[in-house]
Design goal:
5 strands; 2 domains; three-stranded mixed β-sheet; mainly alpha; elongated
């Protein structure tokens, strides 16, 4: 696969479809998967981090499935963050995202989000902020 074809494959994966229908992660041909592995060694998804303060806990949805997990644990420890389990495991976020497709081709991929406990506040405060944030997102759409 040439450099231009590889760049187009990566652009397509990133969402720059150039008028084409976007294929899903590991449904790419073996050549495109090879190209992705050559360009990406890790995929971290930081969706919707609300500016609520200094978190004391973190959710790393999907990281526990990776051989990369010890590095995640070490970083969390260094930043004094408690790793919390996926708050909504039944929602299937890991399997409905690009995480699963990337992991299937050898690229560790997971989401990172703050938990509900923030410095100077209890968990109930964080839960109230998350609930309010969800309402604001619905209103602005």
């Amino acid at each position: 696969m040439g450099k231009i074809a590889c760049a187009e494959a990566v652009d397509s994966f990133r969402g720059r479809y150039r008028g084409r229908t976007r294929p899903t992660g590991s449904e790419y041909s073996e050549n495109i998967q090879r190209c992705l592995r050559a360009r990406f060694s890790l995929d971290l998804n930081y969706d919707a981090l609300a500016p609520l303060g200094e978190p004391e806990e973190v959710e790393v949805s999907g990281a526990e499935r990776m051989t990369f997990y010890p590095a995640v644990e070490a970083e969390a420890k260094e930043f004094k963050l408690v790793i919390k389990p996926d708050a909504k495991p039944g929602a299937g976020h890991y399997y409905r995202s690009d995480h699963f497709s990337l992991a299937r081709v050898g690229i560790p991929s997971f989401s990172i989000s703050e938990g509900m406990k923030f410095h100077g506040h209890d968990t109930a405060w964080g839960e109230a902020q998350a609930k309010n944030y969800g309402r604001q997102q619905t209103i602005t759409r």
